[in-house]
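Morning F.,

Quick status update on the modeling queue. The single chain you submitted on Monday has been processed. Sequence for confirmation:
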Amino acid sequence: MATTTYDSTIPVCTSILRTLTHILKKAISTTENPDSLLSARLHENMYPLADQIRIATQYTENLAARLTGREAAQFGGNPSSFAESFERINTVLENLSKAEKDVVNEYAEKLGPTPVGPGVVVDMSAASYAHSIVLPNVYFHLGTAYGILRKEGVDLGKRDWYEGWFPRE
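Structure tokens below.
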């Protein structure tokens, strides 16, 4: 059976956000003042954890909206607490769960204006947008969030990275 755009986007984004949720929950359980982690960075010229959460959730929400023909929810600035971070993640996970396979696959090849850089917009299919812009970005921001938390002393390992991909019972 051929893999569809739905198969290579919606479950993948769901798994990424489940992993993000897992590592953030682990951070809360092992840190006295978890909200202070939201300003932590890997390097002074890199975005802090709050931005990693904002970008991963907004890109995923934008993709879910584009693949289902609706307007994307806009979250605004960075989350200011872990509670707000989980609200955003849960909103996007709920929207992903509502994405119907046939609808996603129908929208996959539809061309639409796509921002690809500051002031640059090109016509691109939703599938191309997913695989060349969104997925690389959400993987990057998940990996950076993981790195920030490791740097800050949260005991994370490889199994924590895979947590979102493990089958649910």
